[in-house]
Write a structure and sequence with these properties.
82 residues; mainly alpha; 84% helix; flat
């Protein structure tokens, strides 16, 4: 029984990591494509996960944009200073 629980926990962690990787790279598009091939409750679950993946991707890109602002050169300042 303990081995089953350990295997189930590892499987859940692997699925979670794959979901995060897919969410960051592709957004919810790939997950939505898979969900369209299913029916019923599974389809709704995949669309819900796709919405969450889109939200994760947008928030991560927004954070990267905020963090990179100090390192970007402002072209308007360069033109005005010249």
């Amino acid at each position: 029984m303990g081995k089953f629980i350990r295997n189930l926990g590892c499987f859940i962690i692997i699925i979670f990591v794959i979901f995060l990787f897919t969410a960051l790279i592709f957004g919810g598009g790939k997950i939505r494509e898979i969900g369209d091939k299913t029916t019923g409750i599974v389809k709704k679950a995949f669309h819900y996960a796709a919405d969450k993946a889109d939200y994760i991707q947008k928030s991560v890109f927004k954070k990267f944009e905020e963090m990179s602002k100090p390192f970007k050169s402002d072209e308007k300042k360069d033109i005005i200073d010249k």
